[in-house]
Design brief:
26 strands; 28% helix; 15 helices
């Protein structure tokens, strides 16, 4: 690393500071407000928290001065002013090199913390001797979803499972990062956070998840600030290839671990970027270059075993890339975009604070159930030609893979964007469907159907009483390699109780009632404050 412009590394051994929060800044200093207030409100205590702001060459004429003013009025805060590097990698490295805390948390300048976040994360890390703690995140803005990893708190998870979460907004043991020389790549590049977090996962002895309480609020802006020039596409793919090579280097003696770790960068940062729905260049030349660099990355860097473990649509995309067939890539992407989940309420039952929801999910294509026809091999199934033509598909799907659906059922607040997983049991089956023209022509045909039950304890949503506002029931599943989600729809009114459930809650006083939204006929829970004592 080049010498710092300001500041020198401090003692790297034990300190009295529990956690250093590192925040890179480039212009837009006004966006720091929520984060500043949330750090001042931390229950861990100001004397046990250090805040390091690293200005990455701001050029708006006021951000450097305002950062210095913030530091002057904040206990245990420091500022470093660096030449512009073009990405958050170098500012994070500067913060890490100058940190004094036992643990380091990397935050974005426009994000904020829950008041108990750092106390809970540090406590969890000490309890389980964690090198990395992934704390529960609430995403705000575009694609406001959370990973499956936050189903429950866990003392330790395998590194491949942690790969679903590659943002840097985590708690890291500082001594662990320093011992393994884990730093972020620097310069004008993409996915520097993926490289840094993946490197940490590859060395970590204990990766923990804390999901019992919201820890971090992440603003997830749209893609308006991402240039889609051919150069950016090349840089993006090259950066992802560096992550792939990092994994291959550290797992050279363990092919099973290698393939499991490669699942995320191959599926999400390579194959799912191939179609026009994502990372679309502005010109035909850019589209051709995108296809070329993705094809080269796939053929030169990705073991075939990684592709073989994927679902039908990403495997078909890989086949089209290998065959240098951009038309097939676009065709497959359009077919995947037509897939959807149809989630229907079967029955809603209420017993006091506990509501039980039965439902049925069907995999659809443009509103019609996707048909699977039995292949020559008894346990293999082919998708119908309208969903994925045999010429594009990479062979039939084994029945075991089709029914290995990972379903999430969440209750999601429209007001706060927080989502909580619901206790759920379900089963998946290839169900014979004798009615319909396609099924009459092909008697060995089935649809993919899922039936399940989830329970909602209104007094224990996220460990506490459900908060005010409207809560939707959202179902998410990965099927055929595609991430699908749907709200729970009421098709048949007989699925609802004769009298809609309504519960009075006591602390704080609130009334929770089931409702059906008029526009989409979706089941929701509406919680409103009760202002009069006599109402309870």
């Amino acid at each position: 690393m080049e010498p710092f412009v300001h500041g020198t590394p401090v003692d790297r051994v034990t300190t009295t500071i529990d956690c250093t929060v590192v925040i890179p800044v480039f212009n837009r200093v006004e966006a720091l407000g929520p984060g500043i207030e949330s750090l001042r409100a931390q229950t861990l205590g100001a004397d046990r928290i250090e805040i390091i702001y690293v200005d990455d060459g701001s050029n708006d004429g006021r951000t450097p001065l305002m950062i210095d003013q913030i530091v002057a009025n904040t206990r245990n805060a420091r500022a470093f002013h660096e030449p512009a590097s073009g990405s958050p990698g170098r500012p994070r490295n500067v913060g890490l090199a100058n940190a004094r805390g036992d643990y380091v948390f990397f935050a974005d300048h426009d994000d904020w913390f829950d008041p108990e976040a750092l106390e809970r994360l540090v406590g969890w890390a000490r309890q389980h001797d964690s090198d990395v703690v992934i704390g529960k995140v609430v995403a705000h803005g575009r694609r406001a979803v959370i990973p499956r990893i936050f189903r429950e708190s866990r003392a330790s998870i395998p590194a491949p499972e942690a790969m679903i979460s590659l943002t840097p907004h985590k708690l890291f043991r500082r001594a662990f990062l320093l011992a393994h020389d884990i730093t972020a790549p620097e310069g004008r590049l993409r996915l520097e956070d993926h490289h840094f977090v993946t490197h940490a996962y590859l060395h970590a002895q204990t990766i923990s998840v804390y999901a019992d309480h919201v820890c971090y609020h992440h603003n997830h802006p749209g893609e308006g600030n991402f240039s889609r020039s051919a150069l950016d596409l090349e840089v993006y793919v090259a950066s992802n290839r560096e992550v792939i090579e990092l994994i291959r280097h550290h797992t050279a003696d363990d092919e099973s671990l290698r393939d499991a770790m490669l699942h995320r960068p191959v599926l999400h940062e390579l194959l799912k970027k191939a179609g026009p729905r994502r990372m679309r260049p502005a010109t035909a030349d850019g589209e051709e270059l995108k296809h070329q660099v993705l094809r080269d990355a796939l053929t030169e860097s990705v073991p075939g075993a990684v592709i073989d473990r994927l679902g039908a649509f990403p495997r078909a995309t890989a086949k089209a890339l290998r065959n240098d067939d951009p038309d097939a890539v676009r065709r497959i992407d359009a077919r995947a975009a037509a897939l959807s989940l149809r989630a229907e309420l079967v029955e809603l039952r209420a017993t006091g604070n506990i509501w039980t929801v039965d439902y049925r999910l069907v995999l659809d294509r443009d509103g019609v159930p996707v048909a699977f026809t039995r292949a020559a091999a008894h346990d293999d199934w082919c998708l119908d030609e309208e969903t994925l033509p045999a010429a594009d598909a990479d062979g039939p799907e084994p029945a075991a893979r089709l029914v290995a659906v990972d379903l999430e059922v969440l209750i999601a607040s429209r007001r706060t964007s927080v989502q909580w997983h619901l206790p759920t049991t379900y089963s998946v089956a290839l169900a014979q469907r004798p009615h319909g023209r396609h099924f009459r022509r092909h008697p060995e045909t089935a649809t993919l159907t899922l039936t399940g039950t989830s329970t909602i304890d209104l007094t224990r949503v996220g460990g506490t009483q459900i908060g005010p506002g409207v809560w939707d029931i959202v179902l998410r599943a990965e099927i055929l390699g595609e991430d699908l989600r749907a709200r729970l729809i009421v098709i048949d009114e007989s699925a609802l109780p004769t009298v809609f459930p309504e519960v009075l809650l006591s602390a704080p006083r609130a009334r929770a009632a089931a409702r059906v939204t008029e526009a989409k006929r979706a089941l929701a829970i509406e919680v409103s404050r009760v202002r009069r004592t006599g109402d309870l």
